[in-house]
Write a structure and sequence with these properties.
The complex is a heterodimer of chains A (142) and B (1177).
Chain A: E1 8-13, H1 17-26, E2 35-40, H2 48-56, E3 61-66, H3 77-94, E4 102-106, H4 112-129, H5 133-141
Parallel strand pairs in A: 1-2, 1-3, 3-4
Helix pairs in contact in A: 1-4
Chain B: H1 13-25, H2 42-47, E1 53-55, E2 61-62, E3 75-77, H3 78-86, E4 96-100, H4 104-115, E5 120-124, H5 136-144, E6 148-150, E7 153-161, E8 164-179, E9 185-189, E10 195-198, E11 201-204, E12 208-209, E13 242-244, H6 247-250, H7 255-273, H8 292-308, H9 323-331, H10 344-348, E14 370-372, E15 376-378, E16 395-397, H11 398-405, E17 426-433, H12 449-463, E18 468-473, H13 483-492, E19 496-499, E20 504-508, E21 513-520, E22 523-529, E23 531-536, E24 538-540, H14 542-551, E25 576-578, H15 588-606, E26 632-637, H16 649-657, E27 662-668, H17 674-687, E28 691-696, H18 699-712, E29 720-724, H19 726-730, H20 737-757, E30 763-767, E31 771-775, H21 779-790, E32 794-799, H22 812-823, E33 827-831, E34 835-841, E35 844-851, E36 854-860, E37 862-865, E38 869-871, E39 885-887, H23 888-893, H24 896-899, E40 906-913, H25 927-941, E41 946-951, H26 960-969, E42 973-976, E43 984-986, E44 991-997, E45 1002-1008, E46 1010-1015, E47 1017-1019, H27 1023-1030, E48 1057-1059, H28 1069-1087, E49 1091-1095, E50 1099-1101, H29 1111-1115, E51 1121-1126, ...
Helix pairs in contact in B: 3-4, 11-12, 12-13, 15-21, 15-28, 16-20, 17-18, 20-31, 21-22, 21-28, 25-26
Classes of the chains: A alpha/beta (142), B alpha/beta (1177).
Chain lengths: 142, 1177
Amino acid sequence: MDNFEPKILALCCHYCAYAAADLAGSMRLQYPANVRVLRLPCTGKVDPSYIMTAFEMGIDGVLVAGCLEGGCHFQEGNLRAKKRVGLVRDMLEEAGIEKDRLEMFNLSSAEGPRFAEIVGIMTERIKKLGPSPLRRKLEVSV
Amino acid sequence: MMRAGIPDFRLPREVLDSQIMNILDLGVELKCNSPIGSDTTIDSLLESGYKAVFAAVGAQKSTDLGIKGEELKGVRPGIEFIKQVNLGEKVALGGKVAVIGAGNAAMDIARTAVRLGVKDVTIVYRRTKREMPADPVEVEDAIKEGVKFVFLTNPKRFVGKDGKLTGIECLTMKLSDERDASGRRKPVAVEGSEHIIECDDAILATGQRVDLGFMTGCELGVNKWGLLNVDRVTLATDKPGVFAGGDVVAGAGTLSEAVAAGKRAAVSIERYLNDEDMAEGRDAESRIWTDDKHRELELAQRREKRLKSARVQPDEPHGSYSEAKAIEEASRCLACGVCCECGECVKACLAKAIDHDMKDTYRDLEVGAVVLAPGYEEFDATLRGEFGFGRYENVVTNVQFERLLSAGGPFAGHLQRISDGKEPKKIAFTQCVGSRDASNNRAYCSSVCCMAAIKECVVAMDHTPGLETTIFYTDIRAFGKDFDRYYERAKAGGVRFERSQISRVVEIPDTKMLRLSYIKDGVPVDDEFDMVVLSTGMRPSDEALRTAKAMGIELNECGFCKSDQFAPVATSREGVFVAGAFQEPKDIPETVTQASAAAAMAMELLSSARGTLVTKKEYPMERDVEDEPARIGVFICHCGINIASVVDVEKVVEAAKGLPNVVYSDHQIYACADNTQEHMKQIINEYGLNRLIVASCTPRTHEALFRETARECGLNPYLVDMANIRDQCSWVHSKDSEAATAKAIDLVTMAVGRSAKLIALTTEEMPVVQSALVIGGGPSGMSAALSLAKQGFMVNLIEKSDSLGGRLAPGKFKDQLIAEIQKHPLIRTLLSLKVEKLEGFVGNFTSHVRTPDGMIDIEHGALLVATGGRQYNPTEYLYGQDKRVLTQRELENRFGAVSELPARPAVAMIQCVGSRNEERPFCSRSCCTDAVKNAIRIKEMRQDAKVVVLYRDMRTYGSNELLYQKAREMGVIFLRYEPENPPEVTGGEKLTLKFMETELKMPVEMNIDMLLLSVGTSPAIENQEVSDLAKLPLNADGFFLEAHVKLRPVDFASEGIFLCGSAHSPKNTAENIQQGRAAAGRAATIISRKTMTVGGQVSVVDTRKCVSCLTCVKVCPYGAPSVSEKNGKNRVEIEAAKCMGCGSCASACPAKAIELHHFMDKQVKSAIEALLGEVIG
């Protein structure tokens, strides 16, 4: 368990979070290699089914990262994402998966360091939680 | 000279020997002991078959002083002395040695004497330390090694006993005011100051000269300094085939200069031998240091080391590197901070992007218009010495502070003091540093600093909990859109505002705290802060001023580009336009506005040439791959070493080969290089690829390039995907190759998963109606309409009232503008009419206008909203009840009223009537300047008039500040009132004004003959109508809300619709005109195109699933989805031209009837499944 390296999916909006991740790279900030970024045009495009699919298939954690509130390139996409993430967190809990495995963050495209920090926070959190219960189950069944 | 004339602690002999061996190894023949000028001459060399001769004989002779006693034993020429030491001869020096001279050679000699064990070495120099020609570092080194200096002392004669030197008789000197040829003050002897300096040896280091004996038999041109005349570029002498360089040409110089001369001569000689032009493409001088600071630092470190060992190891105090040190030094390679043209970067750059031979080239461009946008420079804060900038580390400028707050700044956004890295607890901002400052020739206001300071305070307090911020100011000039709201919020949020000027800043040495002195409530106060931020103003850059001069552009009294209020972006020269801070200090939205306005004006001139230089790119027919199974090609990029040094690219290639649908996988040094692009195209064709994945950098910068590559070989651009394995992988996991490689494989796997489901997307060209509709016939609307017409577009200008002009002040300009509009053949003016219904979308709008003759439909490609503002109609201060109370505008229309006033009249003005209050919490921007202008005019008309202006903050931004200054100079009295204590006006026989004077804290009562109200601007009533008509957002005050307050000031979020003038926020005439032009410039970007591309990444509705719940209609910020009736059923359609591709509707649709192309659910999920299939598998 000590050397558990979680796999985390990051759903990032093109305009802020994804750009911030690129900036973290330009700044050569170092952060844990556990996150896999999937780029979307806007977090408003995040569909609960994407998150559910990921958990069903054994992901250890999902983070959704969009623009700062009030700073959405498409006006309110990130606010809708916030609501949805809240709902999915409740659904996860009902299904017996710790809801803290899913979190929404907001940052601007200039916040490279914040992106690195977010990855650090999520990685630490998921390491403490351990592998997803579904992943453990799936692995047993395989 | 290198061996004989330079001490070995300066040039280690092994280095010299190895250099000589290198040269000899190249096949150079060395003939020692062959003096030129006796048996052999230059001519005889040429005759014997040498095609070229390079004379590099150096300056080998000491100059003597020409004073008595130089023959005494112990008086030594400096070069001889060094030579003897260097050649290993025994040199016996006495206990006391005097060195005469103060150049670098003198330092070498003195330090060599120290190394020979002499305890008492003194340098005798006739001027002071300041005039010494030696490099300061050399002097410092000599001092550290114990060499003594005697300044202002000149030898008169050497004295001796028995032919042996015993001392030097010297004269004390003083510096006269007369300057010598070198510009230094000339030393003169103090009469009767003769004295003896005792010494056993005196070494002369007073100069070197060239021994021209080598020229015997071949006379070459010599100048008055006894040096050879050569061409400065080629080093050729006046005799063909003979070249010369180094000290013999330039006088005693450094070794590096001599080496450079040798290299320069070599180039010339090679060209000479090949009969080429020796001078072509060469400059006389080449600078090699790019960063002196680093160089100095580096030299200082080395020097320190050397000094430590000077006495211990007299033979080699420079030392050479230990192995560890050598490795450390070598690892600094390419990061040494200086350019010495070593050429290593050329070798290291795999993209071959560095070219040291690149030169400035001059090109002539033929253009029809020029836009000057050179920006500004920051005021030099050291000119305000009382603030201690440059002396106290914790005093920074606002620009520096901005960097400190920046996530990409020196402390990654963590706010800390420069002196000790501690988090500050108290920060003071002081405004107007280099603004509103006539004593520094900066009388204007820099316009942006107030808001910048407020923002910086708010951001800093956000970053650093518990931080206290204070802004010291004269007036808070929050005159822009929504600025006052921000100001009030900052006040409520704890930013302290002190209306006081800082007189000085003093640093407390041990704590580095900064003590500020200022006046509060009439009492001097001292307060300490951790940091002080100077809000430095803007000034025109020197470069811009040079450009303006070269272009023949006139400047205004503030030194910025001269412009006219009715043509705000035109310069004094036709065809040359100006935008941004070079016209006058301004903030970002206004700069952007001016840029668009300047573009519009340029396009007015160039409309006939539009599109004539464009060449259309042709693409091959697109392959139809719909029915083909996915054939994916994966290209893994090394990005030089950026990716490949961390990620095991070959492993990623192998992993990709094992993924489903991948038929090709390989790696490239640079995926983006031209030749790789060609290679990719070949591979796509050869392998019949129908999906392309590039695993390299970020799609944000490079997706367009690879899409283009795909298109060029007939592949739909939407079949390209990228995996970001550099910015989001190798760069951020550079210490963990294994994890980075695993992650890169995952990212490629996800891309492969998604790729397989990608579909070709079509875009179509939709015709654009190349005309515009402008709503509003005020100054901004008219300016916009006229500009568009001049650019060659048909314009419909619709105005609700029965005349054009709006709130534009009557006068010549108004009349001319209206006349020009009325006679322009491309403008149709529709008066007393309104748009009743708007349909369509960008490029294809239809406006329905009801006229007395029935409805007319107007088709237009762009819509411009210029509904203007309206004057606030005051109810306060007896307005409307007493004839003596007027608005400023009423006075402007009837200035004659001023002459009718009684003798010694008193006129009062009240500012902010109907502005900056609860109901209208915004500044109306132009009223302060209008009041100042009117006050000046009143004073001009009636010198006996007393004019009092009651204000809250005088907001005469930019060059308006000069008017404010002028008004004060003319005797206009400005007194401040607080909104809590507004003035009171009572009527009757005399009009009486009562108010609380803020500075005096006393009630003041005065009888006045006329009261002028500076009334604000309210949003136009029809804003709401137009907002409903075109679904355009309004802000809380009722003005229209632009797409982006800073970067898109005249655009609406909805494509094809623009705004200008007071519909945006209150403005003066110049700003209205310029924003009108800006909106015209922006609208032209749409209607100048015959067609527009529609489609691609847009949402589509599956009508079979749609239940017309209207969720998408509510969610879409662009009004793209709409309900229409088809076959008797209501169905939603999404207008592709309006869709911006965010996908909000797709994820909100409860029936899952909407898909966003290119981010379809199956595509996204396929990426996730590919990733996790592997996790579990």
